[in-house]
Automatic annotation (TrEMBL):
<dbReference type="InterPro" id="IPR037401">
    <property type="entry name" value="SnoaL-like"/>
</dbReference>
<dbReference type="InterPro" id="IPR032710">
    <property type="entry name" value="NTF2-like_dom_sf"/>
</dbReference>
<protein>
    <submittedName>
        <fullName>Nuclear transport factor 2 family protein</fullName>
    </submittedName>
</protein>
<feature type="domain" description="SnoaL-like">
    <location>
        <begin position="9"/>
        <end position="111"/>
    </location>
</feature>
<dbReference type="Pfam" id="PF12680">
    <property type="entry name" value="SnoaL_2"/>
</dbReference>
Amino acid sequence: MNDRHVALIRAFYDALSRADLAAMESCYHPEVSFGDPIFQEVEGRDRVMRMWRLQLGVRDGLRSDCRDVTADDHTGTAHWTARYTMAGTGRQVVNEIDALFRFDDNLIVRHHDEFDFRHWSKMALGRPHGLLFGWTPMWRKTIRDRAAQQLDALGPA
């Protein structure tokens, strides 16, 4: 167990729960990459932080709870729960997420979140879209493309 890396993961989620982007950014390596079922792959600290700004903007009142944090000298894991209201739909979301981390220079250089896209889609988007289409590759591509366009439109900080 690497206590420094465990503390780094906890500091990241504490900052996320406060929407403290500067503190979140301080946990990331300049060459960080992020991935999840929606954004897939985002490269570089500036772009990853732009993604988090976007996420915090479309998730009203995000509350995050982190648990089961483990880390060694190279990798770490955590389970976190994201609770928020989806701004575009007004729907309540409780998303259970497993996070994987890699470290370099005692910073997070890789962050990957994994969650059930279909379950998220039903909560975030409701019927008929989330319920009927949440499992289809075409719907996933639509959501991913929209997220990428929003990220590109946001521009640098």
